[in-house]
Amino acid sequence: MSTTVRALPLEQLRERTSEKWREYPADVLPLFVAETDFPLAPTITRALERAVAIGDTGYIASRTPLAGAFTAFAQRRYGWAPDPARMRPTADVSMGIVEILRRVTSPGDGVIVMPPVYPPFYDLVEEAGAVVERVPLRDTGSGWEIDLDGIRIALEGGARAVLLCSPHNPTGTVHSATSLVALAELAAAHGAAVVSDEIHAPLAQRGAGFLPFLAVSDAAREVGYAVVSASKAFNLAGLKCALMVTASDGPTRVVRSLPIEVEWRTGQFGLLAAVAAFSEESDEWLDGLLATLDENRRLLADLLAEHLPGARYRTPDAGYLAWIDLTDLGWGENPARRILREAKVALHYGLAFGAEGAGHVRLNFGTSPEILTDAVMRVSTLRDA
Ligand SMILES: Cc1ncc(COP(=O)(O)O)c(C=O)c1O
């Protein structure tokens, strides 16, 4: 049994004041930034209402239940129980990535990223004082995988860290155990760190075989850092809370060496919401969300096949982001621009994810079937225009 999780109606969504609902005028359907259109999980609403009622709006405490809540969540959802003593909170996943990269690289060192990838990764590496080394994902013909040969060559060339996106944004790829084990071994052999951004992990579909990087092997625990958050699955990005997770002494020492300010920037509401999200009481809601996203990812396949033949889309293993190749429609390098201007649908520009994104768009299907259908129908009108 799971709760049914349905997106809010469009009129209500338009009352929201976040980026998704304020960037474009009201005649545009926004399916770009990674916010979802669902109501909050009731456990989270209750936690935040209580905090508002009693004015619980100070700094986060130095001892909080967050790490323990994540351990219990990881145990229930992934069969993995990381040690809460080896974690520290921070404001968001991006900050966790930057702070860890600053510690594990020296200025000018190479950090491997795997395009097409979440656009801010390029900026985060630079913010840490390092240099992006691109090792694109390999297209296998039916999916994407880590290019282990490419990674080996980059590590032999001196790259000091790998910034892994697991599951991968924008393709929704859940990396295989074989790839992750081999990646850990390569990193260990070259004395490099792996920073695994697992923000989309709670949204891996059952059966996709998601494995936390730190759970795959001793080598992964020796070289690895995971940065996790409840924010994508539970739509809490504005509340600011993430967790840096380690599983062996070297990485734990690195995370402990970060100044206390890195923790203090965590939002109190974010922390309260994350504890509620990771609690067992929210599991049924999360299962309901996964069921809805499973329906949406299939609906999108049907809609594209019927109304936009020529669009190439592989159903993602995780999350609510669809990576769609529109090259065959002949709409040029940046189809999202024309789609925004003429169809009034805001999608993420493929090129922002790297040169591999030419001709592609990223579409957020964390919404209602009605909005998703309307969006594809609007885009399909351009076919004959
Ligand atoms: C892979 C990935 N990492 C990080 C972020 C941003 O997370 P945060 O807001 O916690 O920095 C996102 C947001 O969509 C994302 O998709």
Can you walk me through this structure?
Helix 9 links the parallel strand 8 and strand 9 (224-228). The model has no long low-confidence stretch (mean pLDDT 97). It is globular, with a radius of gyration of 20 Å. The protein is of the alpha/beta class and 385 residues long. Helix 4 (66-78) packs parallel to helix 13 and helix 7 (148-156) runs parallel beside helix 8 (177-189). Strands 2-10-9-8-7-3-4 form a 7-stranded mixed β-sheet, with helices on both faces. The chain has 2 domains: 10-42 and 283-384, Aspartate Aminotransferase, domain 1, CATH 3.90.1150; 60-277, Aspartate Aminotransferase, domain 2, CATH 3.40.640.10. The chain has helices at 10-13, 19-22, 42-54, 66-78, 93-104, 120-127, 148-156, 177-189, 218-223, 231-234, 249-256, 260-264, 268-278, 283-307, 335-343, 369-380, and strands at 29-30, 87-90, 110-113, 131-134, 138-139, 144-145, 161-165, 193-197, 224-228, 242-245, 312-313, 321-325, 345-346, 348-349, 360-364.
Note the main attributes of this structure.
385 residues; alpha/beta; Aspartate Aminotransferase, domain 1; Aspartate Aminotransferase, domain 2; 2 domains; seven-stranded mixed β-sheet; four-stranded antiparallel β-sheet; 16 helices; 41% helix; binds pyridoxal-5'-phosphate
